[in-house]
Amino acid sequence: MTLDLLLSGGEIVFPKRGVRTGSIGVKDGKLVGLYAKGDEPAAKEVVDCRDKWVMPGLIDPHTHIGFGSSETDFQTESRSAALGGVTGMMTFHRSEDLRQSTGPWRARGEAQSLIDFGFHFGITSHLHLQTLAECAERFGVTSVKVYLMYKGKAGQAKGFAEVDDGLLYAAMEATARIRGGVVGVHCENVEVIPYLRESLMKAGRNDLAAWDEQSPGFLEAENVFRVLYFGEKTGCPVNIVHMSSRESLEIVRRMRRRNGPPAHIETCSHYLSLTRDAACGILGKVNPPLREQADVDALWEGVAEGLVSTIGSDHVPRKVSTKADSIWTASAGFPGIGVLLPVLLDEGVRKRGIPIETIAAATSANVAKLYSIPNKGDIAIGMDADLVVVDPDRRVMVDHATQHSHSDYSPYQGRTMTGAPCRTILRGRTLAIDGGLSQDANASPAGHYLHRG
Prior knowledge:
The protein is α/β, with parallel strands linked by helices. Helices cover 33% and strands 25% of the residues.
């Protein structure tokens, strides 16, 4: 057999299981062989991976495609992802009627995306729940999200009048009936936030730390308890998305002792690398807020012990102009998919000694398992050949101008990180190499929709 591609002599990263030197054979878009040095068959293309890690391509579990430009986000953001070693992304899709909007949105992604992609459904009404089983079957979506920050007046301002604890409970009941179903929840007690915000605004505060003080970590933790308790009562697996606080992490530790249904934790690269004192200032406004160094440290402990199961970017590709001049009027969220892996390599592996196989699990294998994504997230015979070759010693300085994103800024602008991807491969096809896009892949994108279930 002649291989299409041989990745020769690299340090192969097996999620959770360790690292060993070897070569990887690819044919027809699949992993077909793992070889010791000297035992490799012939290949049409050989890539020397000595002194490099070869990891599963990242699957970013948390992105917001369409929040920058609904017309072109799949195009721009998938290219930013590929440059950063991301070969798949899950993005949130919500509309008034998911039956009508999901098909066209999928078609746009299939026409534009350089990487594979799938959807989480945003649940904001009882119509969504009444049609969930139908939509899950038609579109292969097993995961939904409920936004507790859109309760009451906050939701009405966004046009969501039905978000409350009843909708949360009903969403868990409905999702528990879907094979592989999981409910992700944005946890913030939006009823207390206005009370705390009022005094901060009266004091003239306009700093990033004020955003944390108006929505402190205990307001996230209070919601986390409610979500896990409802999960127990409905028998529904839950996922606390973009967890930001050490208090929330402790709530999960306590509740897991009760042996209820699965309780998963996702955090994001910015909660592992930025604080409320970050130099980016208002550009760092995000929900939930950036917090203190003690929260960053606690979340890394959760990653190290496996309590935090997935890590995403919460990528929002808006323009810097949407940030305005005030913490109170600036848009929330910022771009991050293109630097997801470098942030985790620099902050986790280099600075804290987190094993690279732990990072691979949280960014690939665990994501594929949680969201029922077939043939992805690991290095094993028969899996899709989605891989990223990483130079652990390569130093890169973050510059938004090289990110290929619709967004025109980065909260990490000018920051130098150690460890970066040097080749991104999707089903055996090179998407990016040494910081640039493959001309062939860029000209003819072939990202697939991830139909699950």
